[in-house]
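Amino Acid Chain and Its Fold in Token Form
===========================================
What this section holds: a protein sequence and its matching fold, both as plain text.
Structure line: whole-number tokens from a learned vocabulary of local backbone shapes, matched to residues.
Purpose: to set a sequence beside its fold so the mapping can be learned.
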Amino acid sequence: MELFLTFLRHDDALVRAAAASGLNTVGAGVPEEGRVVNALTAVLEDDPDPEVVFCAASALSHIRCADAANSRLAARALARHAASSAPRVRAASVEGALLRDEPDAHRRLTAELHRPDVEGVFVSVAGGYASHREADLPDAQRTELIELLERLREEGWAHRPREDDDSSDADFRAGELERAQEALRTFASRRS
């Protein structure tokens, strides 16, 4: 872990991005938890490279903190990027809120899925949210997500990619949409 923390300050952005990505597996309660959250928060706020910022946001969204203060610090850092112009950073902010069961998390995800220019990463977040929550996802939320994804399918979302979207291939986008819908339906059928 010390090596990852050291490499967060490396001159090469690719090394910093890899270091930030490597820290997303920090286990809850490890002695370095606070140092990792603080270091990733600093990178998220100060690094000039967009890929490094995304990797730090993604790592912060996935770290399970045993210390409530660390969890609040990570949540606040991600919340400051909720309106980021970078879709993947915004998605990491939403995903972190969902994984921490923050009160406005579902609303933030559905707001992204209501946008006329829905980014593929939010479709992935919806599927991941269903997998994470499994049977705990309230029926009303599950139904709303299924309906929003179905609307995207019916409107041909997969075939109108944006150039700046990471998932610009129509087949890939269609598959991502199908996987997210399947995750939501699979966990709904397990409740029945």
Observations:
- The longest helix spans residues 170-191.
- The radius of gyration is 17 Å.
- The mean pLDDT is 90.
